[in-house]
Amino acid sequence: MSNTRRLGSKVIGTAACTLLAATPAALSGQIVPRPALEQMDWKIRTIRDSGQPVVPAFEGWYQNPDGTYDLCFGFFNLNRAESLDVPRGPDNFIEPARFDGAQPTHFTALGEGRPQREFCAFVVNVPADIGDQRVWWNLRFAGRTYRVPGHVTLRPYMIDNLVNSVGAAMEEFEVNRQFAGAEAAPLVRVVDAQGPEARGKGGNVPAQARARVGAPLRIRLQISRPPAPDAAAADDARRDEDAPSQQSVKWTKFSGPVDAPVAFSPARAQVSVPGEHSVQATFVRPGEYVLLAQVLHGSFANQCCWTNAYVRVVVDP
Amino acid sequence: MADESGLLRSTLGFWGGLLLLACSAPLAAQAPATVEVTYARDVAPIMQASCQSCHRPGSVAPMSLLTYQDARRWARSIKEQVQSRVMPPWPLDTGVGIQRFKNDQSLSDEEVETIVAWVDAGAPLGNPADMPPDIAWPAWGERWAYEERFGRPPDVVVSSPAYTVTADGMDQWPILPAVDVTAEMGVKGERWIRAVELRPATPGSASVFHHGSARVANRLPEDVYIGPGSSNSPAEVRDLQRDQLAEAAVGVEGSIFPEGTGRLLKEGDQIVFNPHFYPAKLTEDLPDVALQVGVWLYPEGVVPRPTDGDIVYDQTSMPGMEDAPLIIPPNSQATYRTSFRLEGNARIHSIRGHMHLLGAYNVVEAVYPDGRYELINKLNWDQRWHTAFLYEDDVQPLLPKGTVVIITTVFDNTRNNLAAPDPDQWVFAGNRTVDEMFRLRLGTTFYSDEDFAELVAERQGRPVASR
Predict the structure, then answer these.
(1) pLDDT over threshold 50, residue B424
(2) Calpha distance B322→A47 (Å, rounded)
(3) Facing residues of A119 across strands?
(4) Which of A143, A149, B32, B147 is 20 to 30 A from B287 in CA distance terms?
């Protein structure tokens, strides 16, 4: 792990206590003497610039056409400025061990703005007969373990993968399609890798590239709508061709060498779909990397809909 | 998929989970001894007043309590439920804060003692001649909750387009197409709303109806009344509530605005329905589910004081919370404390918390500009009920400009919380039922300094938020 330090003990598992700056002036000596209040910082910050852990998240599950399930995991890096690298191993592992290996090793800093976790950055595919078995993702920071179980035993954790089910049910309401009816995980193809198209959180978008340290690598994504499920929807799709939808693309380093940030230009972009998106990735160290592009058509918070595209890059000195 | 039974109860049908636990055994015969309490004379009136509105065929409760035979069968459970104050549902700490409400459906100590004495005596019927006449309860959807209070059905009823709730177990938040109140309901000019009720209108849909709202979609921000002189509440708070017309959930039928206050309904208004369906136990699609909003109007020409209605204080997005997002660790409790300062003079006529499965309670406190402190209420959250507590007129908190309102919210993600679906999970803020929220709704009307001073004077020196 590139950066180990003790977790602020008051932050997780106890309380987040916030009083606004306006509060002290309004409080009187009945509560606490005014001078003491004015000298106090009432904020307990879960989010800090650095020194905090990464919290794992189980987002939910969905079933694949072949009967297997995908368990969706995300994470919340609680640091605004500090990205963390945690290689797979005793500080970053999935158990049972046969499911280990799908998880990220790089956890990008939050940056500015309202903090939000990384939704469903990867999935663990489990067999159809998984039953009530739990799959745990374990992360360790400063001697403390942060772990979360994925399982398929709770229907409220079932999520949409390819199509917003509410949207599908809303197709009858022509006027309302702008709200929900059109949300569907886009088809994504990494142009330069000559790979097939794929869609959904499973991210089965095989792509490989080579690059050199310091030399920007251009990666192009071809993004399109999924095929219409029926004739009526196809009519809608044709009608929409003159008004392509705006979808967002977000790039992060998913795994790779420790202390080796990847600079994306741009790291986030809006793209008209169908259309093409291009990013330049620049590396500072050689090694093997996996880059993740999340192409979103919907809402991360509502768990639908987007496609995870993983690009494997070998970087030479 | 493995069995999920027992982890999440449906939103409405929870009585079964509570009552069936302890009530399946028939009541053991016990000697009446010297107890005078009988069902016919003493208990039946309580059952009619406090239980039967839900415990009757076709309503939300899983068993009927319309007859003596019904009540005797469930007597032991009834005793447990009323003694523990689980039923009738009134999720409020009765030991602190304001205690006088218009919709208080809790039993008095004497009523609880009566029921307990009746059960302990072997649940005797007594003299049938003492039995009060049966109440002719209306069928589902036949009568509105506020109908009796106003002596008439709503003046305007707006129905949403029908929606098919799909039986896939996922949360569903359809935003249904707008309904024009003029084209569909003939509303002309400007009319003022005295009360508004929202309900799932389709038989059988109550079991999947988590909550829902009706909004006036066409209202522009500048049209939205936020109270006399009130550039007060934070901008994001105003944005949240600016077009809200009504919200309903289990325990909340809608809003009755204080006498003399109201909200505006205008010709051409577009009503948009946004229900949250939670079909966790739905095995087949439920088609043609519609919502209805019923509106009771002030007489034509009457212009009341505009009220802000429910102002939603979302702790997640409050200033100062940028570095403290809602994160609830596994197998632990989490406490969040936020505050805001009122920049206008507020009269609070209702209070309601909102969390999901992990909510434990809210404490709402006020620190007045002159330094006095008051605990307004402690709301014990029960995810099966979304009770809005409607203050009696003479105890409605009067919070002057500059008052700091402090909200403390506690979540319980441990196995002590039977509603927690999986205490091993990290839980974050979000819309899904398995995500969490922490919001406080305060039914609010803002007053000018002069009008507010009159209100305060009417309290004759009693504390501003008098109990």
Answers:
(1) yes
(2) 8
(3) none
(4) B147
Identify the band that residue B102 occupies on the pLDDT scale cut at 50, 70 and 90.
Answer: confident
For domain A165-316, give the fold: Immunoglobulin-like (2.60.40)
Q: Judging by beta carbons within 10 Å of its beta carbon (0-12, 13-18, 19+), is residue B262 exposed, middle or buried?
A: buried
Give me the domains of chain B, ranges plus CATH numbers: 15-130 (no CATH), 308-467 (2.60.120.230)
Locate the chain A residue with the closest alpha carbon to B176: A176
pLDDT in tens, A181-227: 457 888 888 887 666 788 888 876 667 899 999 999 999 999 988 76
Average pLDDT over residues B104-122: 94
A33: nearest CA in chain B? B371
* 3 state SS of B406: strand
Q: Do B68 and B44 touch, CB atoms closer than 8 A?
A: yes
Give residue limits of the domains in chain A: 1-159, 165-316
Average pLDDT over residues B404-426: 95
Total-model pTM? 0.82
Environment class of A270 (CB within 10 Å of its CB; exposed 0-12, middle 13-18, buried 19+): exposed
Partners of B295 in beta bridges: B156, B196
C-alpha distances (whole Å) from B280 to each of B171, B224, B228, B312, B420 are: 8, 37, 44, 27, 15
Best of B170, B270, B283, B401 to disrupt the A interface (most A CBs within 10 Å) is B170
Global ipTM: 0.84
Inform me whether the C-beta atom of residue A154 falls under 8 Å from chain B C-beta atoms: yes
